[in-house]
Write a structure and sequence with these properties.
Residues 294-312, 323-347 have a biased composition (Basic and acidic residues). Keywords: Signal. This is Protein of uncharacterized function (DUF3300). Residues 284-484 are annotated as: Disordered. By secondary structure, the protein is mainly alpha-helical. It has a domain at 48-177 and 187-310. It is built from 20 helices and 8 strands. The chain has helices spanning 2-34, 48-55, 63-72, 76-88, 94-100, 108-113, 117-123, 127-139, 141-157, 210-213, 270-276, 304-310, 320-323, 328-343, 353-374, 384-414, 433-436, 438-455, 460-463, 474-478; strands at residues 167-173, 191-197, 202-203, 206-208, 243-245, 249-250, 257-260, 265-268. The strands form 4 sheets. Strands 1-2 form a two-stranded antiparallel ribbon. Strands 3-6 form a two-stranded antiparallel ribbon. It is elongated.
């Protein structure tokens, strides 16, 4: 009986332990399942203050024109080329100007801006601002669109934004946010201000002073920049407040983008786009703008997300090696050859232009050092390599001196004055040699006359030790012998 009771108690304890263990194991899973998911932190490149400052000069443009500027600003290098082209063709505008640049390699959004030379004249005043504007639109499109609406509400509150014969300004209800805002939203965030041309086929580009058009600027430390309008398109417009409109630009298909304030992106009118851009047709599904990194022209992206997204390799890049015949077997053989070169002390061939230039520069330095090492030093000129050179030159010098003595002796016997000859290694005589040392020339002339006089003296001169001429021994050699 006791044994059965003990078994029962043990079984109850074991079952209780398994139950607690199961609850302990399930607790983390349940906690993970019920914990709220937090979105990854957003890479903020520009603050709200910086965005408002860079958006102030263009926030009051008509929506279609603003969309074209935002798209084109992501290609700052091509905008600079378009500015140059517009300056060289001051009379080109509208659809006709866009057709003239159809052969250019620019993005269609940049080509569309040549229809508005006054806009390009403004953008050309500050290329850095244009690049920052494009970087902001790529990295923070929602913040950029929200900044435009924030500035438009400020201009409307200041009484500087309303409908007229040039534009239609409408206020629409903003879409309800998908998630509740963490903080109280501003009063004007519930509405969206839309600016459209009064005539869809004529666009008037406004010009204004952003330091006064938005009322009291919210950031005194970072006031907006005012780019004066080109006088050719805005004659006599000295602006202090409000908007001014110059000559309208007649268009039919030049503006094919529009702001989508519900999704904070840009819609594309496919029909207008295809009518204008015959070389780059799109289909109906491509009605949302996408940045094309091919037209970036090497300008680096500012934020890491854009660099990762737009800076990746093009499709099919991983297949280029196989197309060129480069496979794993060839790579292994190439690495084996490089290892063999390292073992034998041979420098590896250059794989880039920079390495090739460095190798050529090192080779030039080595050649100079080798040439300096082979050249005999001043201390070794009398010994070593220099001594060998001097020793090799000594027989030549001795032969030259012997020939010179023989020539002097022959001239003395014949009574001809001896001519001064240059010793080996000395300067060569010329017609002006006597002018340098007159005393030496006189001594040589006197010595020649003395030799000539001694040759004609009788035998008494022999006692004085002078040499006299003797008959040649050639006849004796002809007779078969000489004196014995």
């Amino acid at each position: 009986m006791r044994i059965s009771l003990l078994y029962a108690v043990s079984a109850v304890l074991v079952l209780s332990g398994f139950s607690c263990l199961a609850q302990t194991q399930n607790a983390p899973a349940n906690a993970t399942a019920t914990a709220p998911l937090t979105a990854p932190a957003k890479d903020v490149v520009f603050t709200q203050e910086q965005l408002d400052q860079m958006l102030a000069p263009i926030a009051l443009y008509p929506d279609p024109l603003l969309a074209q500027v935002l798209m084109a600003s992501t290609y700052p290098g091509e905008i600079a080329e378009a500015v140059t082209w517009s300056k060289a063709h001051p009379g080109a505008k509208g659809d006709d100007a866009v057709k003239q640049v159809s052969s250019q390699t620019w993005d269609p959004s940049v080509q569309a801006l040549v229809a508005f030379p006054q806009v390009l004249a403004t953008l050309g005043q500050d290329p850095v601002w244009v690049q920052r504007l494009g970087d902001a639109f790529l990295a923070q499109p929602d913040d950029v669109m929200d900044g435009v609406q924030r500035l438009r509400h400020q201009a409307q509150a200041a009484g500087n934004l309303q409908s007229n014969q040039y534009q239609n300004v409408t206020v629409q209800a903003a879409p309800a946010p998908a998630t509740p805002a963490p903080a109280p939203a501003p009063a004007n965030s519930s509405t969206t201000i839309v600016i459209e041309p009064a005539d869809p086929q004529v666009v008037y580009v406004p010009t204004y002073n952003p330091t006064t058009t938005y009322g009291t600027w919210a950031y005194p430390a970072s006031p907006p920049v005012y780019y004066p309008p080109p006088p050719a398109y805005y004659p006599g417009s000295a602006l202090m407040a409000g908007l001014a409109f110059g000559t309208g630009v007649a268009i039919v298909a030049s503006l094919w983008g529009d702001c989508d304030w519900d999704n904070n992106d840009i819609d594309i009118d496919v029909d207008r786009y295809n009518n204008l851009n015959r070389n780059t047709q799109i289909n109906r599904n491509q009605n949302k703008w996408q940045h094309n990194s091919l037209h970036r022209d090497g300008v680096p992206y500012r934020d890491s997300r854009s660099r990762e997204h737009y800076g990746r390799q093009l499709d099919g890049a991983n297949q280029r090696g196989a197309f060129r015949g480069d496979d794993a077997q060839r790579a292994q053989a190439r690495e084996k050859a490089r290892s063999s070169m390292d073992r034998h002390g041979i420098e590896r061939p250059a794989t880039t232009n920079l390495q090739a230039r460095d190798q050529a520069r090192r080779a030039q330095v080595d050649n100079r050092m080798q040439a300096g090492a082979d050249r005999p030093r001043a201390s070794d000129r009398s010994q070593g390599t220099g001594g060998n050179i001097r020793e090799s030159q000594q027989p030549r010098q001795q032969n030259a001196q012997t020939n010179q003595r023989r020539q002097e002796l022959s001239q003395t016997r014949q009574g001809t004055p001896k001519r001064p000859t240059a010793s080996p290694g000395s300067a060569r005589n010329n017609a002006f040699a006597g002018a340098r040392s007159p005393s030496q020339s006189n001594a040589q002339a006197l010595r020649g006359r003395t030799s000539q006089a001694s040759a004609t003296r009788p035998s008494a001169a022999r006692s004085a030790g002078h040499q006299i001429s003797r008959p040649s021994s050639a006849p004796m050699r002809q007779r078969g012998g000489g004196r014995r």
